[in-house]
Amino acid sequence: MSELSVDHLLGIKYLKRDDIELIFQTADHFKEVINRPIKKVPSLRDITIANLFFENSTRTKLSFELAEKRLSADVINFSASQSSVKKGETLIDTVNNILSMKVDMVVMRHPNPGSCVFLANHVDAHIINAGDGAHEHPTQALLDTYSIRERLGQVKGKKVAIVGDILHSRVALSNIFALQLLGADVKVCGPLSLIPKHIEQLGIEIETDLRKALEWCDVANMLRVQNERMAVSYFPTTREYTQQYGVNKQLLEDIGKDITIMHPGPINRGVEITSDVADSDQAIILNQVENGVAIRMAVIYLLASKIKK
Q1: What are the CB-based long-range contacts (under 8 Å, 24+) for 268-271?
Q2: What is the DSSP letter of 152?
Q3: Architecture of domain 139-284 in CATH?
Q4: What is the side-by-side strand order in the sheet with 126-132?
Q5: Are the folds of 12-137+289-304 and 139-284 the same?
Q6: CATH code of the domain occupying 12-137+289-304
Q7: pLDDT per residue over 192-207, tens digit each?
Q8: pTM for the full model?
Q9: Domain parsing of the chain, residue ranges
Q10: End-to-end CA distance of the chain
């Protein structure tokens, strides 16, 4: 397979297994590039990319921007908090105004689920979903599964526990789709109040006991509690949440197996994960960050190859 089967990266659920394998192969190449003394390639010198972030983001935005610059693309950064969106301008009008500047690709984060699909149906540009509400975050799932493959040799047959706030997490849903597509076994673990009601319809088992989940898994992907998405309280106190669902060094030593620890960031140190775990050899959190740039370079490069000049 030499090109993606899709024209946009809207969500993992639109990808085939071959698409993910192609993205991984391309990322392998770019990982070599970003570890060279000269980290730039001229691949996208004539491509213009707009980064539209309607929600706060630090890591994802920086990662995309770095990926675009490593590929020598022209980059426009757009922040909704300083834009005409505040004056009531619609999403379509905002994007069309940006596209009239001859933009080829749009990377968008938006609080509304489905906003990227809506955009792809209405504007003439390649769209990359950088997170739509609590729905999907496809590049995060790609970098997570890529990081598992790098650490454990392959994803197929591995047991992955996604722990924490599943209900409000776009990372969880995209990871479930990607892990299943690549043949991993997946369980979710957390308080029932933070697990979506229909998740079992995806063929996912629920485990409410963290120790049992850790004894079962090869990889634990620790998600933070997304307080900013909560209008009501989903558990009594942060301290109680940490006692039941926080991973610390003592717990891992008690279980006595080599579990790979992941976290999409930002980490609430001392809540879902302690510093001694986050900074340990078992954690691949910084590898995920590095791999994020390579994966985003791969996605941008493969979608750019579909642009008709």
Answers
A1: 268/224, 268/225, 270/242, 270/246, 271/224, 271/225, 271/238, 271/241, 271/242, 271/246
A2: H
A3: 3-Layer(aba) Sandwich (3.40)
A4: 74-79, 48-53, 105-110, 126-132
A5: yes
A6: 3.40.50.1370
A7: 989 998 898 999 999 9
A8: 0.94
A9: 12-137+289-304, 139-284
A10: 22
